[in-house]
Design brief:
This protein is an alpha+beta fold. The chain is 32% helix and 21% strand. The chain has helices at 3-16, 22-31, 35-41, 47-52, 81-87, 137-147, 185-192, 198-203, 254-263, 277-281, 311-320, 323-330, 361-370, 389-401, 415-423, 440-449, 464-474, 479-496; strands at residues 61-66, 95-97, 103-105, 108-115, 118-123, 163-170, 173-178, 216-222, 226-231, 245-250, 268-269, 287-288, 292-301, 335-337, 377-383, 406-412, 429-433, 499-507, 510-511, 515-516, 532-533. Strand 15 (377-383), helix 14 (389-401) and strand 16 form a beta-alpha-beta unit.
Length: 535
């Protein structure tokens, strides 16, 4: 291999491992005169197009199609991922997370840890809310005081329970006081801490009229049709956003979304029909943007009543489950089997699987017999037909669990009724995704499984050992010790199985070829400030 080929091969390896960015990769291969060599080594990568697209251009309207309908624009509630997809472009966070979970400046331009319970942050001085109020440290203080207001009952408070207060030093400096050695502060700020303005909150209904400091300001919301945002000219990053407008439409049908993208009615869509994903990646008229396995799919299990109040029944389900079949038959290979919230490609991945070697039908039957179900049992699986994978998972579950003695009855509910089943604990088992895994212990396993969490939809209260392990993980600062603590949490969680993780979806955003800057992030936010259209 020639020196040039060796150099290009090294650049490709670094790029594929995400150790360098797309722009760095293109600059590198151009510098060594390796464009043709790189193209021959990466036939699926449109290098010439990438080189030609040049610098971001301002202007244009992006019409984006998500899957579900938004319901609430108040970031304190994080009510449905579809709501977050919109409002995270209206509000700004103190810090941001990139594709590799690196912490980047947001409203906070710098920060430092003073001691094991005190962090000091300095804000940018040019951020304005969309009502023209100047963003200061007082807004940060108000944001967290509101979040913890018991009269508000904000679900997002669960992610900040170790936070004990915010002290304002001056207009642009503040300190966050936490319980000692909280290891997840920065990741929580990067995932959930949209800063709000007191005047905006008190003068308007924040669920319907969101006012933030983000790159786009709210224009209108036509229920069951679209939400329109427009560029905020006073955004604290002067060169961004690039787009003039973003219009979000909710289209539940994968084929309808794809048709809209192909006809030019849409510029960006969240998902294509999964069975066509590989075929469409080779289509020059579409663009599959950098994906990421940040989207676990799982079973929520109601542990408060029979039959799943017995751990042996939950463990029997684990032993009867065949994750590879789910990945291939439901997700058409667009998901990776995983018994934990993250996939093997994620740095957090523990590799723990106490059900390794499954499916094992004999062990599943023995556990059911131990629980008093020698003759098997009937379970109700609650499905949402508007989430295309859920009915398919239900059908496959019927086949997979039958040999062990489970008789699965699939029930279909529209979203509102499904949530009612969930919140009233009327359901027995259901499928769902989770859109918060940047720090999977803090953002997924803790809220779903800790006995004190308001997001413990499984009503699981039976493992003080798991509670203790989750608390130990949260209050560990050393990265290596924190990873070891996470590994222990995963193992204990699997043994109790209040939720059962199936796969991790390879989330890919699809655009027209002239749309650039879209990428999947660990926070799963749609960071439209980075997106631009080459007209």
């Amino acid at each position: 291999m020639s020196l040039r080929k060796e150099q290009v091969h090294d650049f490709i390896k670094k790029y594929s491992e995400e150790r360098i960015s797309r722009r760095q990769f293109l600059q590198a291969v151009t510098t060594v005169g390796g464009v043709a060599v790189a193209q021959s080594m990466m036939p699926g990568f449109r290098l010439a197009t990438a080189l030609a697209q040049g610098s971001p251009k301002s202007g244009g309207t992006l019409v984006a199609a998500t899957i579900d309908k938004p319901v609430n624009m108040d970031p304190a509630f994080a009510e449905l991922y579809s709501s977050m997809q919109v409002y995270q472009n209206i509000f700004s966070k103190l810090v941001n997370l990139d594709r590799n979970n690196n912490v980047l400046p947001g409203l906070a331009k710098s920060w430092q840890q003073i001691d094991d319970s005190t962090w000091e942050f300095t804000l940018v001085d040019n951020a304005y809310f969309h009502n023209d109020e100047h963003c200061t440290a007082n807004d940060v203080k108000y944001t967290f005081e509101r979040l913890f207001d018991p009269n508000l009952g904000a679900p997002n408070a669960v992610f900040f329970t170790p936070l004990e207060g915010v002290e304002v030093v001056d207009d642009y400096t503040f300190r966050i006081i936490t319980q000692p050695n909280w290891g997840g502060l920065l990741e929580a700020l990067g995932a959930f801490a949209e800063v709000v303005n007191q005047k905006a909150i008190e003068e308007n209904d924040p669920k319907l009229l969101p006012i933030g400091t983000g790159p786009f300001k709210f224009v209108q919301w036509v229920k069951d049709d679209f939400i329109e945002l427009e560029r905020w000219d006073k955004y604290f990053k002067p060169s961004q956003p690039y787009l003039d407008k973003v219009i979000f439409r909710a289209i539940s049908d994968d084929t309808v979304r794809l048709t809209g993208l192909q006809t030019g009615e849409l510029n960006w869509i969240e998902q294509v029909p999964l069975h066509r994903a590989d075929e469409l990646r080779a289509n020059a008229d579409l663009k599959a943007n950098p994906d990421g396995e940040f989207f676990p799919d799982m079973f929520l299990i109601n542990c408060s009543k029979p039959p799943f109040d017995k751990v042996e029944v939950r463990q029997a389900l684990q032993w009867a489950l065949h994750r590879e079949s789910i990945a291939n038959l439901v997700w058409f290979g667009q998901a990776t089997p995983s018994a934990e919230p993250v996939s093997p490609s994620n740095p957090w991945y523990s590799g723990a699987n106490v059900y390794d070697g499954g499916p094992d039908i004999d062990r599943a039957k023995a556990l059911l017999a131990q629980a008093g179900y020698e003759d098997g049992l009937t379970i109700r699986y609650a499905s949402q037909p508007q989430v295309p994978t859920q009915p398919l998972v239900g059908q496959l579950l019927e086949q997979q669990l039958a040999p062990a003695g489970f008789r699965v009855e699939v029930e279909s509910f529209e979203s509102a009724r499904w949530f009612e089943e969930l919140f009233t604990l009327n359901y027995e088992i259901t499928g769902t995704y989770w859109s918060a895994t940047a720090d999977p212990g803090e953002h997924c396993l803790y809220p779903l499984s800790h006995s004190t969490s308001p997001w413990n939809f499984s009503a699981f209260r039976d493992s003080p050992e798991l509670d203790q392990a989750l608390d130990e993980f949260r209050f560990t600062l050393d990265p290596e010790a924190r990873q070891n603590a996470f590994n222990n949490v995963v193992r204990l969680h699997q043994e109790s199985s209040p939720q059962v993780f199936q796969v991790n979806f390879k989330r890919t955003y699809w655009t027209q070829p002239n749309v650039h800057g879209a990428q999947t992030l660990p926070t799963l936010e749609l960071r439209m400030e980075d997106v631009w259209i080459d007209a």
